Amino acid sequence: MKALSLIILSIMILLAATYLYINRDQQIRVDLIPPEFEFCETIITEGDLAYDELKKVLVKHKDGWKTSYASFVPGQTYDSPAFKVNVIGNGGVVVSYKTDDDYPQFTKFIKYDWSTSCEKYHK
Description:
With 123 residues, this protein is an alpha+beta fold. 27% of the residues lie in helices and 25% in strands. It contains two helices and seven strands, in the order αββαβββββ. A hairpin with a 3-residue loop joins strand 4 and strand 5. The N and C termini lie far apart (73 Å). The mean pLDDT is 88.
């Protein structure tokens, strides 16, 4: 009985450690932000309001992200081959990017007035 209790305790400690590791705060790699994104079927680069706004927000809020394994419905998307940003609703942000051996995805709620929209690009 004592051995069974020890096994159960070990499993619980392992599960708790795994949970804490997966849900720890992460910092996104803003150095991987590409020089251009596709946004609203248009290529945006530095100097475009949508690009500059996105980069400013990501750099300012690079800390405090959570790893996510979920799939998200596309909202306001900024796409490049190796770096993707999906703004969902009123501040849910999903960032994923290619690293040497992985394609991690992170989420964070950023209270921000995402003023750019596709309407500007489709007048």
